[in-house]
Amino acid sequence: MRIILSKCFTSMVTQAIRSKKSMSDELLIAIISGFVAIISGFTSSFIGSSKAIGYVEKSQAVFDTKLEELTREVREHNNFAKRMPVVEEQVKIINHRINNLEKYR
Question: What pLDDT does 16 receive?
């Protein structure tokens, strides 16, 4: 729409300059049309950027939630990894005790 209004503005100014009769009316119409084109351009840009900002905020919220969940899972895994060597040592001790009991039976 901005392109159409800009072309109308350009053609009106050109026509107003070429024909000297009622130049002030046509020039006024051309200037008003130009301002309307500029205002509509700013408005559409503002609306588009507002939608983009909303989308980015939603995406960031989803990303933060997923990151928190992943962090929680990593902490659980790290806790498990810390406990595993202790469990392995206990299994070795239990197996050794079982072997000793079987020997002396």
Answer: 59
